[in-house]
Write a structure and sequence with these properties.
The protein is mainly alpha-helical and 65 residues long. Helices cover 55% and strands 0% of the residues.
Protein backbone atom coordinates (compact mmCIF):
# COMPACT_ATOMS: atom_id res chain seq x y z
CA UNK A 1 0.00 0.00 0.00
CA UNK A 2 1.47 3.32 -1.11
CA UNK A 3 0.53 6.62 0.53
CA UNK A 4 1.25 9.95 -1.11
CA UNK A 5 1.35 13.24 0.74
CA UNK A 6 0.30 16.26 -1.25
CA UNK A 7 1.02 19.72 0.08
CA UNK A 8 -0.66 22.72 -1.49
CA UNK A 9 1.81 25.60 -1.46
CA UNK A 10 0.06 28.85 -0.59
CA UNK A 11 1.89 32.19 -0.51
CA UNK A 12 1.59 32.31 3.28
CA UNK A 13 2.94 28.78 3.68
CA UNK A 14 5.80 29.54 1.29
CA UNK A 15 6.81 32.56 3.40
CA UNK A 16 6.63 30.48 6.59
CA UNK A 17 8.84 27.76 5.11
CA UNK A 18 11.29 30.32 3.74
CA UNK A 19 11.58 31.99 7.17
CA UNK A 20 12.03 28.60 8.87
CA UNK A 21 14.74 27.61 6.37
CA UNK A 22 16.66 30.84 7.04
CA UNK A 23 16.02 30.47 10.81
CA UNK A 24 14.24 33.82 10.96
CA UNK A 25 11.04 34.78 12.70
CA UNK A 26 8.27 36.00 10.42
CA UNK A 27 6.52 39.25 11.29
CA UNK A 28 2.97 38.47 12.35
CA UNK A 29 0.16 39.54 9.98
CA UNK A 30 -1.44 41.58 12.79
CA UNK A 31 1.78 43.52 13.38
CA UNK A 32 2.18 44.11 9.63
CA UNK A 33 -1.41 45.43 9.39
CA UNK A 34 -0.91 47.70 12.41
CA UNK A 35 2.33 49.11 10.95
CA UNK A 36 0.47 49.82 7.70
CA UNK A 37 -2.34 51.58 9.60
CA UNK A 38 0.15 53.75 11.50
CA UNK A 39 1.99 54.67 8.30
CA UNK A 40 -1.30 55.62 6.62
CA UNK A 41 -2.37 57.75 9.61
CA UNK A 42 0.98 59.58 9.60
CA UNK A 43 0.66 60.21 5.88
CA UNK A 44 -2.90 61.54 6.24
CA UNK A 45 -1.90 63.84 9.13
CA UNK A 46 1.05 65.19 7.14
CA UNK A 47 -1.25 65.79 4.15
CA UNK A 48 -3.80 67.51 6.41
CA UNK A 49 -1.14 69.71 8.01
CA UNK A 50 0.19 70.64 4.57
CA UNK A 51 -3.29 71.60 3.34
CA UNK A 52 -4.06 73.57 6.52
CA UNK A 53 -0.83 75.59 6.39
CA UNK A 54 -0.49 76.11 2.64
CA UNK A 55 -3.41 78.52 2.25
CA UNK A 56 -5.85 76.12 0.64
CA UNK A 57 -9.45 76.82 1.45
CA UNK A 58 -11.04 73.49 0.59
CA UNK A 59 -11.24 74.00 -3.16
CA UNK A 60 -13.76 76.84 -3.11
CA UNK A 61 -12.97 80.07 -4.88
CA UNK A 62 -13.98 83.38 -3.46
CA UNK A 63 -15.47 85.85 -5.93
CA UNK A 64 -13.97 89.31 -5.75
CA UNK A 65 -16.54 92.12 -5.82
Amino acid sequence: MKIEAIMIMTPKLRKDLHAAFLKRKRISPIKRTRKRQIAKAKHMMAWHDHRATSGHNGGTKRLES
